[in-house]
TrEMBL record:
Forms a heterodimer with TMPRSS7. Interacts with VTN. Binds LRP1B; binding is followed by internalization and degradation. Interacts with PPP1CB. In complex with PLAU/uPA, interacts with PLAUR/uPAR. Interacts with SORL1 and LRP1, either alone or in complex with PLAU; these interactions are abolished in the presence of LRPAP1/RAP. The ternary complex composed of PLAUR-PLAU-PAI1 also interacts with SORL1. Interacts with PLAT/tPA. Also interacts with SORL1, when complexed to PLAT/tPA. PANTHER family: PLASMINOGEN ACTIVATOR INHIBITOR 1, SERINE PROTEASE INHIBITOR, SERPIN. Residues 1-24 form the signal peptide. Pfam families: Serpin. This is Plasminogen activator inhibitor 1. It comes from Anguilla anguilla (European freshwater eel). GO terms for cellular component: extracellular space. One of its GO terms (molecular function) is serine-type endopeptidase inhibitor activity. GO terms for biological process: negative regulation of plasminogen activation; negative regulation of vascular wound healing. Belongs to the serpin family.
Length: 403
């Protein structure tokens, strides 16, 4: 795991998520999205427990989307493991259409752009049901590549990602990520640019102390604003008091939720334990309009994650099994399995707002081988699309001085 943390006056956020697979009506949409959000939050909870005192950025929507695409190609015990862990199946009647409507609703937001792509080896014969599923759920049509020239194919994929992330992810895959055994690459890109509904006045930004997770205190540029916020105070099952404050973006359909414990010495793991869709719903139901002065540090987080351990811990080890993985709905020509799940996320927040992109890929190989709310202590953040409930990005801030 590699993480970097720095300040910037520019606003950027990008997510990189890729999976290597190798051979070795509205109410219904809301229900589907609730389950996808719950799964994404549970993955974050699992990941955060392995790095409790570090900075972390993550895309719940990204991991749900890419594993949803993988679901369409799964069968047997692999499909059972995916649907059991994720809580939904895109192979159910009507589910692909529900997924397409969710993606449509997100894409209608001026601040959000979504696109899915499929790069398939020209020699691979794909099952028609998989093609139809990708088209119905993600409006994606396969494009042929020659993976016998892996570096050329890599350049094409990196150019695709750079284009749809507006250059934020110029080198999506490193040399050697693809081989002659690569059969399929599933891609999903999110671009996000949100301006605060009420921007922070840069003249109010002052240097203040931030109390880090490691017990140290460091000076940070702390933004400040006073207005009416949606705010609530809550208690975990273990009796930990914490508060949640919502900072809206322009248009009010997207917002950032900031979550922090009352006491300085309480680790964020006390809040991420058991985090899921029900927790998010409790927050939404418990927020009320109040006058508050919010002090929030400018921050940037850059995270690289290997998600295979977390997904295995959540019961998805079958995906990575050379012996048991079953993706025969993609092709019956040769067996497939998952080899890696990696995610890259970067987020930068300043007085004006947040800007970002997310890129997701699945690589498939042959298996033959007023009261002031001062965030001067570790806190969580979530960027949510309120109409659908989709959580596009989230993370934890433990050490703002970390570069």
């Amino acid at each position: 795991m590699v993480m970097h943390f720095s300040y910037s006056t520019t606003r950027m956020l990008y997510v990189f998520l890729w999976i290597s697979l190798c051979l070795c009506r509205m109410g219904l949409c809301n229900i589907l999205q609730e389950k996808q959000t719950d799964f994404g939050l549970r993955v974050f909870s699992e990941v955060s427990h392995s790095s409790p005192d570090q900075n972390l950025a993550f895309s719940p929507y990204g991991i749900s989307s890419i594993l949803g695409m993988a679901q369409l190609g799964a069968s047997g015990s692999t499909l059972k493991a995916l649907t059991s862990s994720m809580g939904f199946s895109l192979q159910e009647r009507g589910a692909p259409r529900q997924q397409r409507l969710i993606q449509r609703d997100l894409s209608r937001e001026d601040a959000v752009q979504l696109i899915s792509g499929v790069m398939v080896d020209r020699k691979l014969s794909m099952e028609k049901s998989f093609r139809r599923g990708l088209g119905k759920a993600y409006q994606s049509t396969p494009n042929q590549l020659d993976f016998s020239e892996p570096e050329t194919a890599l350049a094409v994929i990196n150019a695709w990602v750079a284009d749809y992330t507006e250059g934020m992810i110029p080198d999506f895959l490193s040399s050697g990520a693809l081989t002659e055994d690569t059969r399929l690459v599933l891609l999903n890109a999110i671009h996000f640019r949100g301006l605060w509904k009420v921007p922070f006045d840069p003249r109010m930004t002052q240097e203040r102390l931030f109390h880090c997770a490691n017990g140290s205190s460091v000076p940070v540029p702390m933004m400040s604003i006073t207005q009416r916020f949606n705010y609530g105070d809550f208690v975990t099952e273990d009796g930990v008091d914490y508060d949640v404050i919502e900072v809206p973006y322009e248009g009010d359909s997207l917002s950032m939720l900031l979550v922090s414990p009352f006491e300085e010495d309480v680790p964020l793991s006390a809040l991420t334990k058991g985090l899921g869709g029900k927790t998010l719903q409790q927050w939404r139901n418990g927020l009320k309009k109040v006058n508050r002065q919010l002090a929030l540090p400018r921050f940037t987080i850059d995270t690289q994650l290997d998600l295979k351990p977390a997904l295995t811990q959540m019961g998805l080890g079958n995906l990575f099994s050379q012996k048991n993985a079953d993706f025969s709905r993609i092709t019956t020509e040769e067996p497939l399995c998952v080899s890696k799940v990696l995610q890259r996320t970067k987020i930068e927040v300043d007085e004006e707002g947040t800007k970002g992109s997310a890129a997701t890929a699945a690589i498939i190989f042959s298996r033959m081988a007023v009261e002031e709310i001062t965030l001067d202590r570790p806190f969580l953040f979530l960027i949510q699309h309120k109409p659908t409930g989709a959580v596009l990005f989230m993370g934890q801030v433990n050490q703002p001085q970390q570069h």
